[in-house]
């Protein structure tokens, strides 16, 4: 399998797992992943994109612009979550499988293997910008200023007890001020994404892992017992304090408006679009603002991506042109229409390199 990465500093073949997958026969429903082998996709004239709910509004905006101005059909965009999107994207080649996948995290080795088993052997990764993960509540509710350690203590299934090494108990905290008297005296109720979401993956990595490593004995497990480390740091409580609210971040926004005691976890763009109704909590003393995320001073930020199936380029009409619209200055530039709806753009020099690489994807079958 070959994965091209249209990233500012990377142009390489992905992990060795991808190479191992290359020689495996595709599963039933898959197919060869050369452009010639992608001919089965030729009966469809509308690009299909699946994946991240965070990236969904950005790709939808590009699709609308593309449909109005390009002469190609407006692409179909589906919000399935990052993990669900990769499962569909890696299912095979042909009209029954998507051409592109939105992602709020990089593709995992296990997903690369799934692609390889199903004949999806050429994938291009394009970083489109950055996003922050925010913890927010209703604009009229109490303001929160949280550390990642406090968020871990609020949301982990088990938390350390006392000073002894290795002592964990079922999470006893029911109110925020039990964790720190400076926090509001209200019940812990946090609405967040399900395990299939890239936002959930990033929150676990950037918040839960960082918070639980405040205990030295847990941090040491990361080097010696990774399974135990993940069990402690990644497992969220299931007693009602954390509520899986689905892949649709707009639903979380609506629930926060009607429940001022709840907090929600979602991408910055949804806060940007609802500033009249929501406010973001400070994390480690830093507000979740456009400028702070762009400057990478806000601690809970992540890159965003789109992935393109090479076998469909030049077969399903318009894929290359759609990608060019996506990385154009009018879309991703500092004053482009995507930053206007909350995407944190790449620095100008990095965007220029991404755009230059993307020009090679114009539909042009040899």
Structural commentary:
With about 375 residues, the protein is α/β, with parallel strands linked by helices. It has two domains: about 1-130 and about 305-360, Periplasmic binding protein-like II (D-Maltodextrin-Binding Protein, domain 2); about 130-300, D-Maltodextrin-Binding Protein, domain 2 (3-Layer(aba) Sandwich), CATH 3.40.190. The chain is about 35% helix and about 20% strand. It is built from 15 helices and 14 strands. It has helices at about 15-20, 55-70, 80-90, 110-115, 150-155, 175-180, 200-210, 215-225, 225-235, 250-260, 270, 290-295, 320-325, 330, 350-360; strands at about 1-5, 50, 75, 100-105, 120-140, 145, 160, 170, 190, 240-245, 265, 280, 280-285, 300-310. Strands 1, 2, 3, 4, 5, 9, 10, 11, 12 and 14 form a ten-stranded mixed sheet that branches. It has a two-stranded parallel sheet with strand order 6-13. Helix 5 (about 150-155) packs across helix 7 (about 200-210) and helix 7 (about 200-210) crosses helix 9 (about 225-235). The two termini are about 20 Å apart. About 45% of the residues are buried. The model is unreliable at about 5-40 (pLDDT under 50).
- Secondary structure class reads alpha/beta
Summed up, the helix count is 15
Please count the beta strands (DSSP E, at least 2 residues each).
14
Biggest sheet overview:
10 strands, mixed
How is the quaternary structure best described? single chain
Q: CATH topology of the largest domain, what is it called?
A: D-Maltodextrin-Binding Protein, domain 2
Mean pLDDT: 86
The overall number of domains is 2
């Amino acid at each position: 399998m070959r994965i091209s990465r249209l990233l500012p500093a990377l142009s390489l073949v992905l992990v060795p797992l991808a190479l191992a997958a290359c020689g495996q026969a595709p599963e039933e429903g898959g197919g060869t992943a050369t452009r010639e082998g992608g001919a089965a996709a030729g009966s469809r004239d509308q690009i299909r994109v699946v994946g991240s709910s965070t990236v969904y509004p950005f790709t939808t905006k590009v699709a609308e612009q593309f449909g109005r101005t390009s002469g190609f059909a407006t692409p179909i965009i589906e919000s399935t979550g990052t993990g669900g999107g990769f499962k569909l994207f890696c299912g095979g080649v042909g009209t029954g499988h998507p051409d592109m996948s939105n992602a709020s995290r990089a593709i995992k080795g296990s997903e690369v293997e799934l692609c390889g088993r199903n004949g999806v052997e050429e994938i291009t990764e394009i970083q489109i910008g950055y996003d922050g993960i925010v913890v927010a509540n209703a604009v009229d509710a109490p303001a929160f200023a949280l550390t990642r350690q406090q968020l871990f203590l609020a949301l982990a299934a088990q938390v350390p007890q006392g000073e002894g090494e290795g002592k964990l108990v079922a999470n006893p905290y029911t109110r925020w001020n039990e964790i720190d008297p400076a926090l509001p005296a209200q019940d812990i109720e946090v609405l967040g994404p399900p395990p299939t979401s890239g936002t959930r993956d990033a929150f676990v990595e950037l918040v839960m892992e960082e918070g639980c490593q405040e205990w030295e004995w847990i941090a040491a497990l990361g080097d010696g017992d990774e399974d135990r480390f993940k069990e402690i740091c990644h497992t969220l409580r299931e007693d009602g304090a954390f509520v899986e609210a689905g892949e649709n971040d707009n639903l979380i926004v609506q629930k926060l408006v009607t429940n001022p005691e709840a907090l929600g976890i979602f991408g910055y763009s949804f806060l940007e679009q609802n500033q009249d109704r929501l406010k973001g909590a400070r994390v480690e003393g830093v507000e979740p603002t456009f400028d702070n995320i762009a400057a990478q001073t806000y601690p809970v930020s992540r890159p965003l991506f789109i992935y393109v199936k090479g076998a469909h380029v030049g077969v399903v009409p318009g894929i290359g042109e759609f990608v060019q619209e996506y990385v154009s200055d009018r879309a991703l530039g500092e004053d482009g229409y995507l930053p206007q709806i909350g995407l944190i753009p790449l620095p100008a020099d990095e965007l220029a390199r991404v755009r230059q690489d993307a020009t090679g994807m114009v539909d042009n079958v040899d």
